[in-house]
Amino acid sequence: MAAPVNSSSGCWKVPEVYKHHEQQKVCISRPKYREGRKAKAVKVYTINLESQYLMVQGVPAIGVMMELIQLCALYGTVEEYRPLDEYPAEEFTEVYLVKFQKLTSARAAKRNMDEKSFYGGVLHVCYVPEYETVEDTRLKLQDRRSYVMRAAWNRAKEKKEKEATNEGSSSSETTSTSDTSVTRREQTSENLTAGETSNDSHDPDFPLLPLPPQQHYFFRHENLHGTGPTEDKMGTLHNAVTNLKRPQVEGLSTDPSSSNRGQGTKRRMSSNQASEFRFLPRTTHLESRKRKMEEAAEPSATVSGEDGPLIGPKLPEPPKVDMEDDSLNTTVSLIRNTMKQVESVPDLKAVEKKIKPRRRI
Amino acid sequence: MRRNESTDVSERFEYLQTLVTEFQDTDSEEAKLQVLANLANFAYDPKNTEHLLQLQVPDLFLDMLTEENEELVEFGMGGLCNLSMDPDCRDAILQGGGISLVTTRLSSRREETVLSAITTLMNLTTAATRPQTTEPGVLQCMLRFSLADSPRLRSLASVFLQDCCSREQVRQAEQQMQGLQAAVGIPLPED
Predict the structure, then answer these.
(1) Which InterPro entries match (chain B) (predicted)?
(2) Lowest mean pLDDT: which of A9-23, A92-106, A182-196?
(3) Is residue B157 situated within a structural domain?
(4) Is residue B78 part of a domain?
């Protein structure tokens, strides 16, 4: 790794092309029982190789930097980003450095964006830990350590609890945590969910988000499902975090004004401009429909004031419908409100006509 | 259909056991490398720690440190790096003579091996083991690394020196290094 000695601090100096940036050839000789879902190279990931800093290569040079960052922001807060003009790049492509607030976000982003097509190009995403400062590295190790310790503590707790319940049995298991002959299963559902939430992070973003109850349940339920199948046969943890993608996206789209996560303008931008995105999650469609309804409702709102007399027959109150989904419920109540406004101004037939089909819901 | 969690757990254990068995039985160097890499990656997830301990995988990784094939060493060290943060695994590694085996590999030409070794040593450092993991030879090594070209090596070595050693220890090591360098400069008397 010979390189000119450069004592300048910070991550913004001329980049070196390191071996761990290179995409290795995938392994084709694995026996079936340990073949993963996706062909992968033979590589070992340690905490030293992972980083909150990612490098994205293969971005088509057509001015899509913001779209790229919006895509990254799906996986977590992006703290900084810049093009790496000095880094060798293929013709007509650009290279970007993206710094995530959390390593777990970087992990999820790498897992989901690597080898994916993007505006006609194919992205190659890799960790670039060489951009870390000493403090970054220290914090990374500390985070990892506390996560592992927490998991170990949970495991020990589980064992003690199980032993307490098994006290009367003929089992001769000791309470020593270093006893390696324990064959009893220590994974209860409690451990599983604890393991899942701590798995993807000491990243409190997802569990702490005030998601609507159904969505939250859906997230945890889905996660429990995903415990076994998501980790592939080659042991890469990266697979285990993918379940979070969807709830996070939903949380993002259904609550564009949310500031719970303490997101910066970049994040908010990504939610507002979601419709310009190539990846359009289902809830974004609902959001755009909601917006259109609001826009349609506006002229009636401005015209029908409290001053005007109530004209026209009062229609019966539509039955309360529970769509069993908060976002849909929001949409339905919005439509209902719009209908009420429209009722008071019967000459705006165009709007009424527009809404009419909805009334049949 | 929701799978039984206990089924998941025992399937996981059996799968890991199959990997270990293949590793021990195979003659193919390529298969050994693949399986070793799998195990090292599985070692990253605390869900597997208990199983790997039962299968004595920490010892398997330690054995790799004495192999000639540098890739086996690198993957084995990576596995140790991943496992050693867990207290039970740490104890197993210490019992297997981990400190000296790991320290020896600080001189490896492969950067990943060295980085994994430094992190493993950090994890193996406890009040009881500190005299060993921060003995002068190791500190001098770390001091040299903290001046290396590679940013990752520099950062990691700096964290080691700042977090695992006392200032006095570092100062002494620095002095010893300077003493050595000064001694090299003195021409030998000619007879």
Answers:
(1) ARM-like, ARM-type_fold, ARMC7
(2) A182-196
(3) yes
(4) yes
Would B120 be classed as within a structural domain? no
Q: Does B163 touch chain A (CB under 8 A)?
A: yes
Give yes or no for a contact between B171 and B161, defined as CB atoms under 8 angstroms apart.
no
Q: Which two tokens stand for residue B125?
A: 């450092």
The answer to whether the CB atoms of A129 and B152 lie below 8 A apart is yes
Residue of A315, A148, A197, A353 whose CA lies nearest to B89: A148
Q: Which of B152, B143, B138 is nearest to B178 (CA)?
A: B143
Expressed as residue numbers, the domain containing B143 is 134-184
A188–B35 C-beta distance less than 8 A = no
Do residues B97 and B139 share a domain? no
Structure tokens at A133: 């400062």
Q: Which of residues 60-89 of B touch A (CB under 8 A)?
A: 74-75, 78-79, 81-82, 85-88
Query: Are B39 and B79 found together in one domain?
Result: yes
Q: Cβ-count burial of A338 within 10 angstroms (0-12 exposed, 13-18 middle, 19+ buried)?
A: buried
In CATH, what number is assigned to the domain containing residue B45? 1.25.10.10
pTM value is 0.62
Query: Quick one: pLDDT at residue A339?
Result: 82
Cα A234 from Cα A42, distance rounded (Å): 9
The CA–CA distances, whole Å, from B175 to A57, B131, B165 equal: 45, 18, 15
- State whether B102 and B152 are in the same domain: no
In this prediction, residue A337 has a pLDDT band, given cuts at 50, 70 and 90, of confident
Same domain, B138 and B176: yes
Q: The dihedral of CA A248, A254, A258, A260: what is its sign?
A: negative
Number of domains composing chain B = 2
* Shortest alpha-carbon distance between residue A36 and chain B (Å): 11
- The whole-number average pLDDT for the span A17-40 is 71
Check whether residue B101 and residue B144 sit in a common domain: no
Q: Is the ipTM of this complex over 0.85?
A: yes
Contacts of A172 (CB under 8 A, 6+ apart): none
Same domain flag for B89 and B177: no
Give the Cα separation of A227 and A241 in Å (integer): 10
